[in-house]
Amino acid sequence: MIEHRLIERMIAVLRVEVDRVKKTSTPDAVAIDRIVDFIRTYADQTHHGKEEDILFRELQKKEQSDEDRRMMEDLIADHVKSRETTKALVAAKECYLKGDDGAVAEIASRMEFLAGFYPVHIEKEDKHYFIPAMKYFTKEEQEALLREGREFDRKMIHRKYEQLVMENEATAHVVPKKMDPNWMDFL
User: Fold this and answer.
1) What residues make up the domain containing 40?
2) Which positions ≥6 away from 11 have C-beta within 8 Å?
3) How many CB atoms lie within 10 A of CB 79?
4) Number of domain units in the chain
5) Cβ of 67: how many Cβ atoms within 10 Å?
6) pLDDT > 90? residue 160
7) Which terminus of the chain, N or C, has fewer Cβ atoms within 10 Å?
8) Are 38 and 11 in contact (CB under 8 A)?
9) Alpha-carbon radius of gyration of the chain
10) Within a domain: residue 169?
11) Which residue has the higher pLDDT, 186 or 45?
12) Predicted structure pTM score
């Protein structure tokens, strides 16, 4: 849940930016890029990624109550909504940068949605799902989940920048260099 506290801090920054855009009608593209990078990399790929790829994967194997299963499905739907909203925010920012002043309202609306969305989503996870969901796991299973989560975190920065390089290779029409399958051994 420590990740939630960092997300809450960024949401406070996002709220300030929403207020500034509403007052000035002048979005700050660099601020939006920083916020989007945080949401996509930290909140979504890192935090939601661990939930979906580790916790929810293992919970799918368990006999959950109908209420708990619905809550998990609701949380997954929240993740999708966050991704869609973040993508729409980026699209609105791009329209604004191309001279569409009408995109300012869309930017403010998408940022405002995210600023309201995350506190509600975090409360669902913190107070209504994560702790109760632990009843489905033995102590050993919980420890295994924590180890897998730490390994997931350890590899995150490599995943992010491998994706960045692949996207740039595709744009530049560069054929990727084949890597030794044991390349990580040299780090």
Assistant:
1) 2-136
2) 114, 115, 118, 119
3) 18
4) 1
5) 11
6) no
7) C
8) no
9) 19
10) no
11) 45
12) 0.85
Is residue 179 situated within a structural domain? no
Least confident range from 129-133, 173-177, 182-186: namely: 182-186
Positive or negative, the CA dihedral 162, 170, 87, 94 is positive
Q: What integer pLDDT is reported at residue 140 of this predicted model?
A: 98
Task: Look at 44-48, 62-66, 148-152, 178-182 and tell me which has the smallest mean pLDDT.
Answer: 178-182
* Residue tagged 């309202």 (tokens): 105
Question: Which pLDDT does position 58 carry in this prediction?
Answer: 97
Q: Distance between CA 38 and CA 19 in Å, rounded?
A: 19
Residue 148 domain-assigned (yes or no): no
Cα 76 from chain centroid (whole Å)? 12
Distances (CA, A) of 131 to 1, 67, 127, 136: 10, 14, 7, 10
Give the Cα separation of 44 and 115 in Å (integer): 15
Instruction: Answer yes or no: is pLDDT of 114 > 50.
Output: yes
What is the average pLDDT across 155-178? 81
Whether residue 38 lies inside any domain: the answer is yes
The CATH number that applies at residue 8 is 1.20.120.520
SS (H, E, C) 144-173: HHHHHHHHHHHHHHHHHHHHHHHHHHHHHC
